[in-house]
Amino acid sequence: MAYEQILYEVRDAIATLTLNRPEALNAWTDVMAEELWQAMHAAGSDEAVRVIVLTGAGRAFCAGGDVTGFKSAGDDSAFPRSLLHKLPRAYDFSRRPDYQSRAAYFPAIGKPIIAMLNGATAGLGLVHALYADMRFAADDAVLTTAFARLGLASEYGMAWALRNAVGHANALDLLLSARKVRGEEALRLGLVNRIHPREELAEATHAYARELAESCSPLSLRMIKRQLWELPFQTLHEALIADSADMMQTNLSEDFEEGKLAFKEKRKPRFKGR
Q1: What spatial distance separates the first Cα and last Cα of the chain, rounded to whole Å?
Q2: Theoretical Cys-Cys bridge with 269: which of 37, 165, 262, 265, CB 3.0 to 4.6 Å?
Q3: What is the pTM of this model?
Q4: In this structure, which topology does domain 6-213 adopt according to CATH?
């Protein structure tokens, strides 16, 4: 598929998806939303891909929604309806409905998604970063919720995702103040998992992604990701029951047999994801 506002590349079992409007700091548009949905699902279904990296072109990850395209809810151009037919909607009954709409579909992609925050990450940019499984950031990248300083409420489930990442009090602080966070503070809050000097970020992120792709079972990665994203909806008892079923499945898998053999032979495993 040809894309207008993103780039898609697969190398070393890693799909790198790049938001590609550098002249606008990769500001979010309906076209970008639709293309990223298509690309994420393409990577999710491609057996040659084991890890996904999402980043931005130029000096920003995503500076938020494209304000030049904003319309008010009272606009005659039908603000909500114009989006509903363009953006993905829940439809897959085999998946949790919570993880099917708008930005919240990332957890339903069965492969690890690493958001590589190479620069400004604001508003809708931060929303999408929060639905990734991990966030690696340049040490000078600026992160902000942005909404309160635009007269907007938090949207796309950001309050839920932010509280899940940094806790209730820190989420309130970041949403109410819409202040800018970077570097060591972002790491301390849990807003990002790792920070690197800007010039080392891409190499470090892809090195981590390659380690997952080369050394870990795709079946295990898929199941462990699902287990973690299911937790907000489970009691401990429900989690224990689900984990037992997953463990039984992996005990019978080809990957487990290969993992045991590779360990015995002191070599890297050749996992197939089944």
Answers
A1: 28
A2: 262
A3: 0.89
A4: 2-enoyl-CoA Hydratase; Chain A, domain 1 (3.90.226)
